[in-house]
């Protein structure tokens, strides 16, 4: 972890559970199924600790019925466990940025008791409406402080952690640009499931809004052309190359 503020912004990656779904859920028309990770990131900024998404709730540990048939949540892989392994008390986290409020992205929110949750306003409203069973109120309606934003948001006011809307998968999906000393990362989450999603402009078989989804992919494509490294939301092959629980080195094109 950080030894001095001179280190700038540090970025860490964790796996907090897995889910198995039809491949078409990620890439329309693809056969078979895929077991994909729930990807979580810790942003260590000199002025605060931030999580991007929180993976699955620890209520899924050991579950063999219901969603337990498709959710694999090994013991010791909750976001709180991942933080403690780095000697970070979960109560030290200042902010949780939820890309959206589905169960594999907001499930660990309650384990981060003192954080302010940052979410796009349309996402919060849609999640609270009960229209979509992929949202579970026990994951995100926890009594924590919620900051509902509209559009771009510079979290620390210095250009290093920029939240920006990437709607399409859900009404208020958002992604984050993180500038570290070694490069820029874009934490895409479900606006870009796989590397192939971006390489081929290949949408999933389900979108809240197809035009918005395509527009979000085009936005990511431009960022990638400008040198940012995209961290795809649910790509098991890509994720296998991402070092876990250590500061990521983003130097050079294609490092990750």
| Quaternary state of the chains | single chain
Under the CATH scheme, the architecture is 4-Layer Sandwich
SSE ordering:
EEEEHEHEHHEEEEEHHEH
The name of the CATH superfamily reads Ribonuclease Z/Hydroxyacylglutathione hydrolase-like
Q: Work out the strand percent.
A: 25-35%
CATH class: Alpha Beta
Question: Could you tell me the radius of gyration in angstroms?
Answer: 17 Å
Number of separate helices? 7
> What portion of residues is helical?
10-25%
Described by strand count, sense and barrel closure, the largest sheet is: 7 strands, mixed
Uncertain runs: none
CATH topology: Metallo-beta-lactamase, Chain A
Task: Specify the structural class.
Answer: alpha/beta
Number of strands: 12
Mean pLDDT: 94
Across the major sheet, the strand order is: 4-1-2-3-5-6-7
Described by the principal axes of the CA atoms, the overall outline is: globular
User: Could you say how many structural domains there are in total?
Assistant: 1
Distance between the termini: 20 Å
